[in-house]
Amino acid sequence: MSGSDNHRPVRRRTFVLGAAAGSAALAGPLAVPATAAAFGYSDDGSNYVVDSGAALVFKVSKTTGDLTSLIYRGTEYQGYGGMNSHIESGLGSSTVTIARSGSTILISVTHGTLKHYYAARSGENNVYMWTNKADTSVSATRYIVRVKAGRFLNDEPDSYTYTTSTIEASDVFAKSDGQTRSKHYSRLRVIDYDYIGWTAGNVGLWIVRSNHEKASGGPFYRSLLRHQSADGGGLYEILYYGQNQTEEQRFGLQGPYVIAFTDGGAPSSSLFPGNLTTSWADSLGISGYVGASGRGRVAGVGITGRDAAYPYTIGLANAAAQYWGSARLSDGYFSIAGVLPGTYTLTVHKSELAVYNTQVTVSAGGTTTLNSIAVPSSNDPSNASAIWRINDWTGTPSGFKNADLMTYAHPSDVRASAWTGNVVIGSGSQTSAFPCYIWKDVNSGLLVYFKLTAAQAASAHTLRIGVTTAYANGRPQVVVNDTWTSAIPYPPTQPNTRSLTNGSYRGNNHTFSYSVPASAWLTDTSRYNVLKINVVSGSGSTSYLSAGTSIDAIDLLN
């Protein structure tokens, strides 16, 4: 994302904090009283004013389509720094209309080829939104709900309330205790959350995400979800995120996603993607809208050849849309509903590693039923016979040193263990002691010690290093016993933005294979062979922004 929402480092203030996810709101004056009365709308000259008939009143600018006010129980929640809530950084001059259809009010915003919609339902404290981006003529990658300072407070990884020092770009901060904070550190993949927000006392403010059918990156993608500082907070629905992106953006109608107020608890599960039904919107004339009757379903009776130690996820994707669902642990059954008609690539993931794909066609109103999918043994690199292996093949660095921390902290964070990590095969700690990331300027030259039998040392072997992403074309070159050095491998296609330092290891999984000749091995079976792993690249800068890569697994095959 751009740096337009990066707040300056702030002076330390004393706040009363509650639990990390539910901090107490500061006391303060109420906004101009607005009593929710009868469901309906009015025109105050500058804005359309919508009364939900419950406890929510919101306003939308008649000239820009910005959300200019969110008043819940008489308190204003919208806005900080003189800015409204809106698409991207605001659309500017737009055509804005409003209409009521029974128990629904729809506000339509048109700006060039982009269309955005706000809907209110009688008696609900929700704002339903859709965004239709038709092409690249309008920069529209997110919706941001800007929330007044003091309404909610926390010190979570995606907050920078107490930070005083910028350590990377203008959006990664360090606290005085050495912990790091950034709006990028959400911890969560798309598949991991249905809503994001805050709660304070008896008020909860949330964005319930859409099904992301027009977003990009798939189920394991991480993006900016919220931020908070002493200046205010932001909640996001990201439609296309420029950081560590592996796919081109998709166009068309995305939504609905929902701004939901509650009495302090989580939003209703009926609003969650996969649960939300919007038959009430079928006749509203929303551009690009496809109701339930115009969608289909894909179901699979099971998946064989699975590794029971890991979850399996099935993804559907083409240039127009993406969907996913989880395979049942017992037999691999899956069902993915609400799919737009078309032909899709179906991919089976073991954890985050693609192990099978095929093509499926979906028709409106129909169910495409697949017979049991058999994942060939050779498709899972974990099934290959190995002399030794560091970590299992999952498409993630999970299990390596610092791997879990890296989704919500900078590599320089005080909580990170040392990024050095030479290991001895057979020690029992070869995975947990090996760093999840290797950088040219930080810890290149990691060593792996291992012994071979006489028979093993008499033969050539294939060494494999799996990676999940790379920064600045960082890739591994290996040296064996200081006598044999591999060629520098060609860099695979990876995102060209920051990744390893802003909470994401997810790129394009790739396996480097090195044919090590028998002459490279030591013939003395009592001695350790030494494998050195260097990171090579002519690009990148220094330290944690030097060329680097994230490791999935390393093994030496029989």
Give descriptors for this structure.
seven-stranded antiparallel β-sheet, globular, Immunoglobulin-like, 3 domains, mainly beta, 558 residues, disordered N terminus
How would you portray this structure in words?
With 558 residues, the protein is mostly beta strands. It has 3 domains: 3-281, Beta-galactosidase, Chain A, domain 5, CATH 2.70.98.10; 292-379, Sandwich (Immunoglobulin-like); 381-557, Galactose-binding domain-like (Jelly Rolls, Sandwich), CATH 2.60.120. Helices cover 1% and strands 39% of the residues. The protein has 1 helix and 38 strands. The protein has one helix spanning 454-457, and strands at residues 40-43, 47-51, 56-61, 67-72, 75-76, 86-87, 95-101, 104-111, 114-121, 126-133, 142-148, 165-168, 172-174, 180-182, 195-200, 203-208, 226-229, 232-238, 252-262, 296-300, 303-304, 312-317, 322-326, 334-339, 342-350, 353-362, 367-370, 373-374, 386-390, 423-424, 437-439, 446-450, 461-471, 475-480, 484-485, 510-516, 529-536, 548-557. Strands 7-8-9-10-19-16-15 form a 7-stranded antiparallel beta sheet, with no helix packed on it. Strands 1-2-3-4-5 form a 5-stranded antiparallel beta sheet, with no helix packed on it. Strand 9 (114-121) and strand 10 (126-133) form a beta hairpin. The longest helix has 4 residues, at 454-457. The two termini are 46 Å apart.
